[in-house]
Design goal:
CATH superfamily: Divalent-metal-dependent TIM barrel enzymes
Distance between the termini: 12 Å
Radius of gyration: 18 Å
CATH class: Alpha Beta
Structural class: alpha/beta
CATH topology: TIM Barrel
Largest sheet: 8 strands, parallel, barrel
CATH architecture: Alpha-Beta Barrel
């Protein structure tokens, strides 16, 4: 099993792998720049090459890029949608430079008064447009949501609908976030429920789509639709839920990335 964290890029790419090594990571995820800015400097080719060499030297693989928090490819705001598509295509190009296994993204929100159906259409158009603009084959990894604020991806049928409508379905994969799933009402916290969710995912998306687990406990209640990550075994999901998840034969061969809060010491306890 490959275990790791979302690792800060503060101070530059050269700081990422040392942080991962201190935590005992065998996989990792990162932002390629500040997560609260859509405009960002270009990546330096030499820095990318050194980063890839560092990862190989420490056998940290696969590694993933996560998009900015500001990206919203479901937005009814045309300017924000266009900026989000541009950002996503740039993220695909940056992920290629970093030799990443994929770009993880949230599907966005239609806003409190927005309609879901046109939002799904905007997501599909954005995914396809970003693929065309980037002109590469780096996978886009769609992440499920907790469902707050009319965010898309809180149900498996929504995700399946996006996959079915895309012109490039073979380049789309799926990341299961355990905290988001729990908050959205997916019963992943007990054996029977986890089996039910995985069976539905395989049937609706295809068994090859699930490539990554975001392993996070939840500070929020089941089916609360509130996204609050917490330390493994200390949240509302609990230790037994994660014992089931990490030992499931369908999941144990996948990379597990934690996005738990706190310090390096907290990370050491979580891993």
């Amino acid at each position: 099993m490959r275990l790791g964290f979302h690792i800060s890029i503060a101070g530059g790419l050269a700081e990422v792998v040392p942080r991962a090594v201190r935590r005992g990571c065998t996989t990792l995820q990162l932002f390629t720049s500040s997560p609260v800015q859509l405009q960002r400097p270009m990546l330096n080719a030499d820095d990318c090459h050194q980063f890839i060499e560092q990862l190989a030297a420490h056998n940290i693989q696969p590694h993933f890029v996560h998009t900015s928090y500001l990206l919203n490819i479901a937005s009814p705001d045309q300017k924000l949608w266009e900026r989000s598509v541009e950002h996503l295509s740039d993220e695909l190009r940056r992920a290629k430079l970093l030799n990443a296994a994929g770009v993880v993204l949230h599907l966005g929100s239609v806003g409190n008064n927005g309609a879901i159906s046109p939002g799904i259409d905007r997501v599909v158009r954005a995914l396809d447009a970003a693929r065309i603009q980037a002109q590469n084959d780096v996978p886009l990894i769609l992440e499920n949501s907790a469902g707050a604020g009319n965010t898309l991806g809180a149900s498996i049928p929504q995700i399946a609908q996006i996959l079915a409508a895309s012109q490039y379905p073979n380049s789309l994969q799926f990341c299961l976030d355990t905290a988001h799933a729990f908050a959205a009402g997916w019963p992943v916290h007990h054996p029977e429920g986890l089996e039910e969710v995985l069976t539905e995912l395989d049937s609706a998306l295809g068994p090859e789509r699930l490539v990554l687990i975001h392993a996070n406990d939840s500070r929020s209640d089941f089916n609360s639709h509130v996204d609050r990550h917490w330390h493994i075994g200390q949240g509302k999901m609990g230790r037994e839920a994660f014992r089931t998840i990490v030992n499931h034969p369908r999941l144990r061969k996948l990379p597990f990335i934690m996005e738990t809060p706190g310090t390096e010491e907290d990370d050491m306890r979580n891993i």
